[in-house]
Amino acid sequence: MKENASSEYLAADLWTSISEESNNLSVDLRPALTLVLDATDTPGLALAQGAKSFRDHYLTRAKLVGFSAIWVVGKGDLTALLSS
């Protein structure tokens, strides 16, 4: 249960970051941009679970924000596509 709660918390945190970044950019510019979120301080397992939870709960909203794609990038090769 604790793992699920932490992945949902990370998913909500990712959504907050996306919302804040989108507020800083014109709607007209977003389709030409890929948003990349820095998650280098997030443990790998949490990043993978958080990305899955994000897609489960926020994918539709993320697509409506209008970026070409949204990636979260952790240490090494830990990356996850959140939306495209």
Q: Would you give an account of this structure?
A:
The chain has 84 residues and is α+β, with helices and mostly antiparallel strands. It has helices at residues 2-23, 44-65; strands at 34-38, 69-73, 79-83. It has one domain. Helix content is 52%, strand content 18%. It has a 3-stranded mixed β-sheet with strand order 1-2-3. Strand 1, helix 2 (44-65) and strand 2 form a beta-alpha-beta unit.
Task: Draw up the topology in text.
Blueprint: H1 2-23, E1 34-38, H2 44-65, E2 69-73, E3 79-83
Number of strands: 3
Query: Could you tell me the mean pLDDT?
Result: 87
Sheet bearing the most strands, described?
3 strands, mixed
Q: What fraction of the residues are assigned to beta strands by DSSP? A: 15-25%
Rg of Cα set: 12 Å
Strand order of the largest sheet: 1-2-3
The low-pLDDT segments are none
Count of discrete alpha- or pi-helical segments spanning 4 or more residues? 2
Properties at a glance:
2 helices; single chain; 3 strands; globular; 84 residues; 3-stranded mixed β-sheet; alpha+beta
Kindly summarize this structure in a few lines:
By secondary structure, the chain is α+β, with helices and mostly antiparallel strands. The chain has helices at 2-23, 44-65, and strands at 34-38, 69-73, 79-83.
